[in-house]
């Protein structure tokens, strides 16, 4: 494909000459009553820009389209590329993530002509497929490249979607600090532009809200929710409103307001149920079931029913991380119901779905599996799995979320009589919240004496 400027006389002339030589034609073979041989020579050297009529005549003689001569892109090939892009997008929507990844990768590495916007769309599709397949470390560099593209207009829906994906991927990788930095910069940029609020703008705010929650910054998450709810209501789209109520429900849960969390999540589910996004409805069902598990008088049967419904939908439309989270909550439900064999199978499936990439959720699943081994009197297996969860959690940066998991691991060690391991886990939990150990004067004196 010719990489010269599509509309320049030089690029056009080069294409005419290369195609003529390839066809085994001479300049005089392109001449006619309207076009002299010398004029053909001037066109090929880039010294003359032909009219549309002359270009049409040359295209017929060269057996190509005028679109190809003007841009280097064949019209039929461009249409084929557009169809492949549409197929990749459809595969993503239908949950065929592997097929979507293959389609976008073939487009980017193949010979079909793609303009700048089509390339960006294919790269975004590739990144989305990688994210849904759980390959976050491969998706992030692609998203960074797209976001740094100067041709991507700040504030556009495409720009917002890229910011949302980056914020979400870093959060799911456990790097909450970077996730929040990206989200805050993007929100600040939108505020400075003074643009009308769109669904994608609201989605960016909702994603940032989720990152605040994961960091343990519940006050900031709550304040952002209070700001976004009126904007979402004004914007009007059910998807935008549902996304805000969804995250607001999670924030309420983090603040210990379970009744409010259930009401907000139920409202979000009602909005999303009228939309066409099966995946979002499934995730809301999963969240609603999870919230029911946490209430003292929760309906465990109803919670399991919601989670099983979510599992069926996510198996077709969700990514590995989402399906693993559903399996983890099913393990919690079956543990509470006394179905320990079924719970063990769910926990093991969750770990298998998460693969080898670092995930905080994998720590939670291993902790749940260790607890089940202990309940089933498989103490050696329980200790092995809990040791693995402990080792894995050490690789994550300190945050409120990691503190919660250290506390859970500490409780499991203590419950089985492993006091030393329990104290180490509790110490790590305190450090993750920013509380440092109190200095011991004896240690300072010993250090001075050794000098």
From TrEMBL:
Listed CDD domains: HTH_XRE
Matching SUPFAM superfamilies, A to Z? lambda repressor-like DNA-binding domains (SSF47413), TPR-like (SSF48452)
The record places domain HTH cro/C1-type at 16-69
Q: Which PROSITE patterns match?
A: HTH_CROC1 (PS50943)
Question: Which keywords has UniProt assigned to this entry?
Answer: DNA-binding
Its protein name is HTH cro/C1-type domain-containing protein
Question: What taxonomic lineage is listed for the species of origin?
Answer: Bacteria, Bacillati, Actinomycetota, Actinomycetes, Kitasatosporales
